[in-house]
Amino acid sequence: MSDERQQAPQEGRSVLVTGGNRGIGRAIAEAFVAQGDRVAVTTRSGGAPDGTLDVRCDVTDPAAVDAAFAQIEAAHGPVEILVANAGITADTLVLRMSEEDWSSVIDTNLTGSFRLAKRASKGMLRLRRGRIIFISSVVGMLGSAGQVNYAASKAGLVGMARSLARELGSRSITANVVAPGFVETDMTAVLSDSQRDTIRAQVPLGRYAAADEVASAVTWLASDGAAYVTGAVIPVDGGLGMGH
Known about the structure:
Layout: E1 14-18, H1 23-34, E2 38-43, E3 53-56, H2 62-76, E4 81-84, H3 99-127, E5 130-135, H4 139-142, H5 148-168, E6 173-180, H6 186-189, H7 193-202, H8 211-221, E7 233-236
Parallel strand pairs: 1-2, 1-4, 2-3, 4-5, 5-6, 6-7
Helix pairs in contact: 1-8, 2-3, 3-5
């Protein structure tokens, strides 16, 4: 029986991480750099990690996404691994949530990821290999009061990934989701001690994740060892989302 797995070149792959200037995205970008990959990072204001190609891009602008890919392809070749991480929040209770609160979060987190996956898949189809990895959230599985917009955007990534997995799988392109729980980042650092204690009490492992623990799941999904994993949701949440 022939082995139809498509192996990536060994000299380092072309990787794109969106929103990679801080938090989880930065940890992911640094993990790929450490592996010897050629890593591009999109930001809106700069500050990409050392050793990466810093590309300005607003994922809500289709022309900006196309221009970013052109810049990356010229420097690193076609994107072989896409990590769609860029995301925003606009939290408030549903009765107070404005149309702009809803549309801005959906357009960045969900539609922005669609734009990235659509553009990346062009090069991947020509290569006949590729990895698409969406960064979702435990909130997309469990829901969260005050985050109707954010939870909807993160849940939508699961349906998108599973549809892409079916559509692109015959070309050795996988599409998966990583769903972090609460992670030690700048975003969670602003919580009060009582809020942090309340959250921690809900997590079976009794602690927040480190950003590099999320990055480890992402780099595994991009590895040869995960070549037969597609349409999966990998939780990195300390057990918080069990049973969703």
